[in-house]
Write a structure and sequence with these properties.
A mainly alpha (166); B alpha+beta (209); C mainly alpha (396); A: 166 residues; C: 2 strands; 1% strand
Chain lengths: 166, 209, 396
């Protein structure tokens, strides 16, 4: 584990912490963007070029903007009256600890289950493409269907308001 | 077809771009202040007072009738009438303005003062480079600054000035003709009176001895 | 292509210079020093081009509009950018009191950083790519997507409703046209079979007779290039898509509250984005650094690349002088109702082209489909709406 990994991990965790601790919601969204960028750089550090750039393109270029638009178009931009810490924080802490435990166990188990891989697998974009339309074509189509449904739903929700004020 | 208008527009702008290097009508910019567009004849900026002859005080046409002061919409003309009179271009005794100020920061160049002046004394100038850094008196023009000769008037508005001169000469000629006729009539009357007077005392002088 | 060694050396002169300079350092530092040197050159060259472009733009627009451009500073006004630079550096840096100071400061910074990164993957000449990445095209679009976020940051942090409105419009426009941009590039990727930009240029570097194999000379390439050009104009907020910074409408849109050097950074960012996107368009469709005719290959490759980029810039300036601004809803209509369907069709025609095999038939079929689609979609998608009483979606 080298220095770059620790720096990037610190950046990602810092972004995530800022995203939940800051008061103003748009600041939180921008901190989330920093966390996304940290994740993308972690992918790049693992030589997964496609995943890293796709992360930047999709998450920072589209998802972060979507989050920000959602905040601005609803009343989320006002400062919360009761502060940012919720009253049921203990339950949240327990759930978060549970999820962390499961993820940590999975990662540690995978280190033991898979043979020691020191060489970086050379996965080119070509291989990803072939995998997507070969082995993983069903998930691809399901995701496409889901996105189409979401788009149609958004259009319907936006259009419906035209009929109501009569 | 979609995009046709855009292509036509782009052809037009390309013509403009390349044409501006070769033809004058595609590049109508004048690099002021090195070059200037000559003013057209009817251009007007602020008024000035016309004087005939060489001496501006003696030849000033204005007779301080104060019509322009009353008609001026923003009231930017200030006139003081004199107490004595001096002869005008036809010889008649007229008042003259001891003070004639125009505030050119107020003047709106409407030309009403020129239209109502019965004596062709106030006309529009076309000089516009009048910026000054003295904002307390620099834009209040007095009599001396406003007076310009009739030759200058001819140089900036030739047709108008010729018309005005023709009219004034006509008036002068009429007045002179009337004066001459009156003088002839008076001379004729004096001659007939003298003849009558010469004829009348003759008989009593003959009856005396 | 038999070129004499002199011309080959001229072609590779920057590589040779770099290797010579870097040769003075010990062998361990050489790769890093080479990269640093190239970065320094890019950081100095493109802003210099930007300065030149501002003069060309002002004088070009002036001539188009029947007037002279600036002509007082220097010969024919070509030192004007120096005067502009001095002015923007000495102006007071005003940050509004209620503005979010950190985000306000970071917005122009993140814009310029993201845009400079885009130049890292452009092949500016033979062997002249800074980083020859396998997924170079994807990297370019990733950086281009990051600029949208910084536009939003600028508009929101100014705490000014006009800035926010300008920023929202800008982001909506940039997202919509980014889809068109990406899809028109995907056609090129499909034919080349690689996301690496140097591979794409190498695929276009062959000649039949004297004519080059540039993608713009194919029917799908021409259609793709037209869509790419429209989307590129919209991505960089250039006329006729410059509503976000519409000078007569929103003061200055999302960079209203920026003065002095930060405004200069926004300006720089916009023009550099123009250069980068022109560079990408050149690489994808106009053959990158390859010469237009086979007997012209003696002219160095970097001259061809920069000539093509500057030609694109002149076309941008020309469009700016010609077209009036599009309204937001016209802009969005155009993107989603015409550009996107046409680009999708272009993708399918590209696939058809690929699988039909060599010969004249694929030319005829592709041209016919694309021309028919253009005319039909133009008539249907862009039909003028009937003027009736206006229905407001949210105001009632």
């Amino acid at each position: 584990m080298n220095l770059v990994f620790y720096l990037l991990a610190a950046l990602t965790i810092g972004g995530g912490l800022a995203a939940v601790l800051l008061k103003h919601l748009v600041h939180c969204a921008l901190a989330t963007t920093v966390a996304f960028a940290g994740l993308a750089m972690l992918f790049l550090q693992l030589d997964a070029q496609f995943a890293g750039f796709a992360q930047i393109l999709v998450y920072i270029g589209a998802v972060a903007i979507l989050i920000v638009f959602a905040i601005l178009l609803t009343r989320g931009s006002e400062l919360p009256k009761d502060g940012v810490f919720s009253r049921s924080w203990f339950v949240g802490l327990v759930i978060a600890a549970g999820v962390f435990a499961v993820l940590g166990w999975a990662v540690l188990e995978s280190m033991r289950a898979l043979p020691q891989q020191t060489a970086v697998p050379a996965v080119t974009v070509h291989d990803i493409g072939i995998a997507l339309v070969g082995r993983y074509v069903l998930p691809l189509e399901i995701v496409a269907l889901l996105l189409t449904a979401a788009t149609i739903g958004a259009v319907i929700v936006a259009m419906h308001e035209k009929e109501r004020p009569r | 077809m979609l995009g046709e208008g855009i292509l036509k527009g782009m052809a037009e702008t390309a013509k403009n771009f390349f044409g501006s290097y070769v033809s004058k009508e595609r590049l109508t910019t004048v690099e002021y202040p090195e070059e200037r567009i000559p003013a057209i004849e009817a251009a007007r900026v602020f008024p000035f007072l016309v004087y005939d002859g060489a001496d501006w005080e003696a030849g000033l046409r204005c007779v301080a009738c104060q019509i322009c002061e009353k008609e001026c919409p923003p009231k930017c003309i200030y006139i003081d009438k004199s107490k004595d009179k001096k002869p005008d271009y036809v010889g008649k005794q007229q008042f003259y303005p001891t003070r004639f100020d125009i505030d050119i920061s107020v003047c709106m160049s409407c030309q009403i003062c020129v239209e109502v002046c019965p004596f062709e004394a106030i006309k529009m100038d076309n000089e516009f480079e009048l910026a000054t850094d003295d904002r307390f008196g620099g834009l209040l023009y007095d009599r001396k600054q406003l007076a310009r000769s009739n030759e200058y008037y001819h140089s900036i508005h030739p047709t108008e000035a010729s018309e005005v001169d023709a009219r004034l000469d006509g008036e002068k000629a009429k007045v002179e003709a009337k004066a001459k006729a009156a003088a002839e009539a008076a001379a004729g009357k004096a001659a007939s009176e003298a003849a009558a007077k010469a004829a009348a005392p003759a008989p009593p002088a003959g009856g005396g001895s | 292509m038999a070129t004499s060694p002199l011309f080959t050396e001229l072609d590779q002169i920057f590589i040779i210079l770099r290797d010579w300079l870097v040769g003075f350092l010990p062998a361990a530092l050489r790769p890093a020093a080479g990269v640093v040197l190239c970065v320094i050159i890019i950081v100095c060259l493109f802003p210099g081009l930007f300065a030149l472009t501002t003069v060309f733009e002002r004088k070009g627009l002036g001539r188009i509009q029947n007037r002279l451009g600036p002509n007082r500073v220097g010969p024919f006004g070509f030192f004007q950018p120096i005067a502009d630079g001095i002015k923007s550096l000495t102006k007071e840096d005003i940050v509004p009191f209620s503005a979010n100071a950190v985000v306000h400061f970071l917005a122009p910074l993140s814009l310029v950083v993201a845009v400079f990164m885009e130049f890292a993957v452009l092949p500016m000449g033979r062997n002249m790519v800074l980083v020859d990445m396998d997924a170079g095209l994807l990297f370019f679009f990733a950086m281009s997507a990051s600029t949208e976020l910084s536009v939003f940051m600028a508009g929101w942090s100014s705490r000014n409703k006009y800035s926010l409105l300008g920023a929202m419009r800008a982001v909506a426009q940039m997202i919509s046209y980014e889809v068109v941009l990406l899809l028109s590039s995907v056609a090129v990727v499909m034919i080349t079979g690689s996301l690496s930009l140097s591979t794409i240029v190498a695929a276009q570097n062959s000649y039949t007779g004297i004519f080059p194999h540039w993608y713009i000379f194919t029917p799908w390439g021409l259609a793709g290039f037209v869509m790419y050009a429209i989307a590129a104009t919209a991505e960089t907020n250039r006329s006729p898509f410059d509503l976000p910074e519409g000078e007569s409408e929103l003061v200055a849109g999302y960079h209203t509250e920026y003065s002095g050097f930060k405004f200069a950074l926004f300006f720089l960012g916009e023009y550099l984005a123009m250069f980068a996107i022109s560079g990408l368009g050149t690489t994808l469709f106009l053959g990158g650094w390859s010469a237009p005719l086979s007997f012209l290959t003696f002219i160095p490759s970097w001259i061809w690349f920069f000539s093509k980029v500057m030609l694109s810039i002149f076309v941008f300036i020309w469009m700016r002088g010609t077209l009036p601004r599009l309204r937001q809803d016209q802009l969005m209509n155009f993107a989603w109702k015409f550009c996107l369907p046409f680009t999708l069709l272009d993708l399918m025609v590209t696939a058809l082209w690929r699988f039909m095999g060599e010969g004249w038939l694929r030319w005829v079929v592709s041209t016919a489909i694309l021309a028919l689609a253009y005319v039909l979609m133009g008539r249907m998608g862009m039909r003028k709406e009937h003027f009736g009483p206006r229905r407001y979606r949210y105001a009632e």
